[in-house]
Amino acid sequence: MRMRLPIEVQIMALCLVVSCIATSCDSGEPSSKVSEELPHKLTSEQAGALILANKNLSAFSEMASHLIDITPSDIWEQTGHQLFKNIESTSSWDTFAVSDGSAVQIGMGFGGFGVTSAVPYDVNKDGTVDIVYAYSFGSGLHRSVIAWLDLQNSTEHIISSKPAQTDFRQYDLILKTEDKQIGVYRIKDMGTSKTSLDVLRTYPSKTDIENMTLVKEGELVWENGEFFNIPVD
């Protein structure tokens, strides 16, 4: 005669199976489904070839050997895009977003540091996580700009301040995702040493940012179909 387990035990066993399926039974590691959904990561050499093959990008052959992958882990995990930056010393330090066989330049770096900070964020609430970033440029007059790349159509949008700024930001920026919003921080007293400049020329690591003196200057807010930087007191 087959013994029947008590109903409480059956329920516990069922819950365990469901929990195991939901977590892929892997003790906290990302499920295989997530990794399968992400595109294959490119090397800097592969990204360079892709960028050079794009007729819409003003790239040059020497640049391909000076690209570095600066992709923050959260951008890769949430968007499947990689960010590659040209750090060739005598050229514009431009950055490119690459994914699924396509490449698009984000921001500009001529005379500045190019992209200094980037975060994933669904800007217009369309269900697609976009890329929001800060970059600097300017030959003679350094200036920083905040923009976002709409990953539905690969279009770049400059983010204005509200109220509008009357002059350029002559300093560099760090962006931070905070409580479902993005905080805008000014880097204070960065210094002009080679070490300090190299941090921005390449891309600041988490440790680099922790060692910076940051002053919050605003928050990015989606309002009436536009993304604004709203100053904070």
Tell me about this structure:
The chain is an alpha+beta fold. The chain is 22% helix and 34% strand. The strands form 3 sheets. It has a 5-stranded mixed sheet, with no helix packed on it. Strands 1-2-3-4 form a 4-stranded antiparallel sheet, with helices on one face. It is globular and about 45 Å long. The protein has helices at residues 7-22, 32-37, 44-53, 73-79, 194-201, 206-210, and strands at 67-69, 82-86, 95-99, 102-106, 114-121, 130-137, 143-150, 155-158, 160-161, 173-178, 181-188, 213-223, 226-231. It contains 6 helices and 13 strands. It has 2 domains: 7-37, no CATH class; 38-231, no CATH class.
Order of helices and strands: HHHEHEEEEEEEEEEHHEE
Backbone structural class: alpha+beta
How many discrete structural domains? 2
Spans where pLDDT lies below 50 across 5 or more residues: 1-36
Strand residue percentage: 25-35%
Put simply, the count of helices is 6
Strand order of the largest sheet: 9-13-12-11-10
- Shape descriptor reads globular
Q: Distance N terminus to C terminus?
A: 76 Å
Mean pLDDT: 82
Tally of strands = 13
The biggest sheet, with number of strands, parallel, antiparallel or mixed sense and barrel status, is: 5 strands, mixed
* Share of helical residues: 10-25%
Rg to the nearest angstrom?
A: 22 Å
Describe the structure using short key phrases:
233 residues; alpha+beta; 2 domains; 5-stranded mixed β-sheet; 4-stranded antiparallel β-sheet; disordered N terminus
